[in-house]
Amino acid sequence: MEVVAIYQNRWQIEKFFKKLKQNFPLQYFLGDNANAIEIQIWCALISIMLLQVIFANQKTTIAFSILASIVSIHLMNYTCLASIINKYKINENEKKRKSHPKNYSIKNHTPIRSQN
Hints:
The protein is mainly α. Helices cover about 65% and strands about 0% of the residues.
């Protein structure tokens, strides 16, 4: 039983680091000493944990990468993140509703006939 628990924990850690690498690419470091690199890694870890909390608390199906993009775009704005997410949800719902095949009616469609 303990082996299964260890494997499950390992898999959760693997998924966490995959999400970290996809949404916070640490391709280069802003500092050149060990302390600066450690601080940058800690900031990325704290950021992804905060986003995990926000992602878990939202009542929608917004992808985590989209949430991370929304936050990175509005990072320096003094605005409520919940209102931005709600606005995004409304826009996405309108797009889905407009593009859904049930919204198109062909029973009232009459072909155009040439008048000769």
